[in-house]
């Protein structure tokens, strides 16, 4: 084994999350240099709040993408759960907030489970399934909500306070997002079930031969994605002034972009939820940065597109380099 491979510093720097984190730090520093108010206490709080929903959704999406699938219905699930949260408080204003969170998680898990059953049991491609449920769930929301909107004033003040109150300067809902990232990272990295997801993404057929319960694991991944989208939907109702038929519309594309930019391979088998979370923060910060520097928001889409292409190219280059090294090592052994 070469000295470079034993060097923990070099090993750390080779992590996929490092370039993304570096880009985030550089973006913040450049924006601060142009507009010092960008890092004022209130601006920093707003940055964290703006990234919270995206972080949670990116974690759920990363779990699915690691298995070589994708969930395009998360934006619609967020909309359904967010509007459902407003409906619950309208019908039962005295309902304990933890119960509302539990209902949101279960509601999201059921919607995600429908995706998972169609993908894992019926063997329908995830892209087709979730594209269909994206429109089905959105149609249900449009029919359910109609022109009705629930505003922050219609919900308990303690619920809205989750997005206002802080602990050590960090909003409560952002702390929830951080906990989600930590728990998901531990599960994926330290449990057999988590490692199975990577094996499935790397080679589903080989995973099946090795006795990995592929069907159950993929279903679990979609359940997790749906549950986290449900959590994001409840937090959305707390974070924003109103929820209605258009809540969460188009959110799924930004979530997929955050996951890819965060270093999760779109073809599955590699990446981390930490990287996905950093990617979510980076994309959210880009919007705030452009606003702070008075750059036309049109450029946000172009920048995100460039980041996605760059992430895919880097992933491909790294994959080819690893394959080349493996072949060289095998040739030497022979």
UniProtKB/TrEMBL annotation:
GO terms for molecular function: transmembrane transporter activity. It is a multi-pass membrane protein. Pfam families: BPD_transp_2. Keywords: Cell inner membrane, Cell membrane, Membrane, Transmembrane, Transmembrane helix, Transport. The chain crosses the membrane at residues 20-41, 47-65, 72-89, 95-119, 126-146, 166-188, 218-238, 250-267, 298-318. One of its GO terms (cellular component) is plasma membrane. It is found in: Cell membrane. It comes from the Bacteria. The complex is composed of two ATP-binding proteins (LsrA), two transmembrane proteins (LsrC and LsrD) and a solute-binding protein (LsrB). Part of the ABC transporter complex LsrABCD involved in autoinducer 2 (AI-2) import. Probably responsible for the translocation of the substrate across the membrane. This is Autoinducer 2 import system permease protein LsrC.
């Amino acid at each position: 084994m070469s000295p470079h491979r034993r060097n923990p510093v070099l090993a750390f720097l080779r992590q996929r999350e490092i370039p993304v984190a570096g880009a985030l730090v550089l973006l913040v520093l450049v924006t601060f240099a142009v507009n010092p108010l960008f890092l004022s206490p209130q601006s920093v709080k707003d940055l964290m709040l703006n990234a919270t929903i995206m972080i949670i959704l990116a974690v759920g999406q990363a779990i699915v993408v690691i298995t070589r699938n994708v969930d395009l219905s998360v934006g619609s699930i967020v909309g359904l759960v967010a509007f459902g949260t407003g409906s619950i408080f309208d019908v039962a204003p005295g309902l304990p907030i933890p119960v509302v969170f539990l209902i949101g998680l279960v509601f999201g898990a059921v919607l995600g489970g429908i995706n998972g059953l169609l993908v894992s049991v019926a063997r329908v491609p995830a892209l087709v399934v979730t594209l269909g449920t994206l429109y089905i769930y959105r149609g249900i929301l449009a029919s359910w909500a109609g022109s009705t909107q629930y505003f922050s004033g219609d919900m308990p003040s303690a619920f809205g306070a989750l997005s206002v109150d802080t602990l050590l300067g960090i909003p409560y809902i952002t702390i929830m997002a951080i906990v989600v990232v930590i728990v998901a990272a531990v599960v994926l990295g330290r449990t057999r079930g988590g490692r199975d997801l990577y094996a499935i993404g790397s080679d589903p057929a080989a995973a099946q031969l090795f006795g990995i319960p592929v069907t159950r694991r993929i279903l679990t991944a979609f359940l997790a994605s749906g549950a986290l989208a449900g959590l994001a939907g409840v937090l959305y109702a707390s974070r924003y002034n109103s929820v209605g038929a258009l809540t969460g519309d188009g959110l799924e594309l930004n979530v997929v972009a955050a996951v890819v930019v965060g270093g999760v391979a779109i073809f599955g088998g590699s990446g981390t939820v930490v990287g996905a979370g950093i990617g979510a923060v980076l994309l959210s910060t880009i919007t705030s940065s452009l606003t702070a520097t008075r750059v036309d928001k049109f450029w946000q889409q172009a920048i995100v597109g460039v980041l996605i292409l760059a992430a895919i190219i880097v992933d491909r280059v790294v994959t080819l380099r690893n394959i080349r090294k493996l072949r060289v090592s095998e040739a030497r052994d022979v």
